[in-house]
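Summary for the funding panel

The consortium committed to producing paired sequence-structure records for every protein in the target list. Below we show the first two records in order, beginning with the earlier of the two.
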Amino acid sequence: MTGRAGGCRKRRAKFGQFLFTADSLANVREYDARDFETGSHEKALLLGLEVLRRYN
């Protein structure tokens, strides 16, 4: 548990994290691009915001 998560638990506040990592190209022969090309950060952020919107 992170320090922020522990602090939120103590104060009975909601806490969430959105973790994002870029794909590894270690095996380019079996790489699945999933349409993440140059806009991947924006797509991941928008996906996370939609999840947050639906959660609340």
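The next record, for a separate protein in the list, is shown here:
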Amino acid sequence: MVGNLAARIDKPNPKFFVGTGKAEELKAQRAALDADLILVNHALSPVQERNLEKYTECRVVDRTGLILDIFAQRARSHEGKLQVELAQLKHMSTRLVRGWTHLERQRGGAIGLRGPGETQLELDRRLLAARMKQLEQRLEKVETQRNTAKRARRRNSVPTAALVGYTNAGKSTLFNKITGAGVYAADQLFATLDPTLRRIDGLACGPVLLADTVGFIRDLPHDLVAAFKSTLAETRDADILLHVVDAADPEHDRRVEEVQRVLEEIGAQDVPQIFVYNKIDKVEGARPRSESVDGGRTARVWVSAVTGSGLDLLREALTTALQRDRVHRWLALPEHAGRLRARLIAAGFVSAERPAERGWEIQIDAPRALIEPLFGLPDGDGDWLRAQFAHVEAAAAPKLPARKSQRPKAGAESRVSR
């Protein structure tokens, strides 16, 4: 980078985004420095980007375009490349006009060549739309495969913890230190795009799958969020989030707020979190420690992924959180509760099942946060399920109402797995 120019903007200029005076200053500075690219740390409209390019006689790339370019360089897996290409095409589709305004319409292909055909711009838009549809169909297949793997993990009763945080907070280094994996880790933005899962053994709560996910950033482009929905689903569907924070970053509180906004955007705001303050080796006087806030519901742990100090505290916090927020117990379902049984099995909440004299006995093993939405099921199923988990110590639970009067009613007894 050969230079930079800051501007305070109260209201964006619809033509240049910056004012005409600042645009003139930008043009002069570009010519003086002989720069061949102008990066704008803000999202520009296609018109603003095109006008700045014409005025400065230089290529202009806004914040969204730069992030997409970085993602394109980092993508390694087939799914990651599809996701990045889809996001790039969506971004490009609104900026085609500047490349084809000089071309005339093609001649019509009908008999007699009556009237002009479509312009090159219209043709390219149609080709882009066809390619985006093809990419979306391929990503749907990949998402189906990912969902199948998730259901298998739930059937095996293996909880999942996902690493989230601002980009370059040290998530991949922490992932490698905990799991012994060799995923790519570097001091750069978005070093990890493709989610990687590894199993952690030796915890008191049993085995846990740890997922390393893509890093977040301020004002993450919406097209990118939409394209990476299947990848980000690893975060949304996790049992618990390890929110990695760069403790050496003077703006780490602000970074935490920005990550929370992205989590809310993807629907993961209700997933329990453990805040992991990483890189304490770069903070003078910092030492490994752990504390609880919000009445013990949220933990904060200070660690160093490079030296490994504090990782034992992180494992203890992870074990405590998973044991507290996970339900593991037997339920006795009456014979007319087939629909509820099928729903629980389809969700992957049933780890074992055995026939009973009147119905089924099923073993539930799932995060409470995923079970609680089922309390709103109709036909009395939700109320009955709520009563089961509200009275864990009860010897007998309320009866599940029969849906048809001619079917015999059966009591539903619950057993607590000790």
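Regarding this second record: The longest helix spans residues 120-155. Confidence is low (pLDDT under 50) at residues 98-115, 392-418.
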